[in-house]
Protein: Integron cassette protein VCH-CASS1 chain domain-containing protein
Amino acid sequence: MAETAAQIKALIADEIAAWPLDSREARMTVEAFKANLREPRRVTVNFSGGITQTCWSVARGDGCYRLIYLPSAGYFSLCVESDFGPLDIGVHGNAIECFSSV
Structure:
């Protein structure tokens, strides 16, 4: 489990290092992303059709959304908070772009 968390943190660190900081918007995006990062922790995510999967919560958004890492797919997902836990809304890709889509 600690190994997976370390791998996720390394993926995120690589993204931050590669993020272009050539505009004010880009700098603000990466700073907001870094400010909302959390220690990766396991969480059950709900998907369409009643499917659930154990994923990793890595960042909070504005209180309505959460950034998740899907280890089986190898990418990040934006989830909406629900009464039943995080619900995948189909926004997938790299961490910063998913985070900044809201």
User: Anything to note?
Assistant: The two ends are 29 Å apart (CA to CA). Residues 39 and 58 are 6 Å apart (CA to CA).
